[in-house]
Amino acid sequence: MRTIKQGGVHELEIRRSRFVCALARVTTEAQAQEFVAGRRRTHRDATHNCTAYIVGEHGDLTRSNDDGEPGGTAGRPMLEVLARRHLTGTVAVVSRYFGGVKLGAGGLVRAYGQVVAETVDHVGMVERRAVITVTVVADHALAGRLSRDLHASPYAPAGARYGREAEIDVVVPEEELAAFEAWLAAAGGGRARTRRGASGHIDVPI
Fold first, then answer.
1. 106 in helix, strand or coil?
2. Residues 61-79: tens digit of each pLDDT
3. In contact, 26 and 53? CB cutoff 8 Å
């Protein structure tokens, strides 16, 4: 699952028309619509406020709106940029201030697509990876060595607690869980045990 790293705003001027693109991360269609409504309030004096968004873990929900531009010249090219980048959980609003020079259908398609593409480049993209927090439980002598080995491995510790036994938390991508448990069995000589905890996501820059 890919999404933008953060929200942001970027502006282009093309033949005296201003195109102001705002992007935001969202998790639901309601959040996307709320962001769209807010941008339309902010840019109520714009000639057009065109929109596109993709929502859902697998990009199941897509919407676009030309807001008065000729059909297919604004919302659709905006949506196509998001789809080509394989983004989801992302909403784009482009506010256009007409500068008196008509761009034609092809010019509009290029302008709306370009400003969204440049804004995505500006804010960056991340891959959201499903992870599980695994707690490694071991005696203190073994835990000290395991902690050093973990720091040198792809599975860096995320926290530790020391009581009767040592407990080391490790955030492991779901698809690497079996590999991690095999690594731990070898590194700990079979003397460490694990307890699976909460699931979540981490953002990995791409």
1. helix
2. 999 999 999 999 999 999 9
3. yes
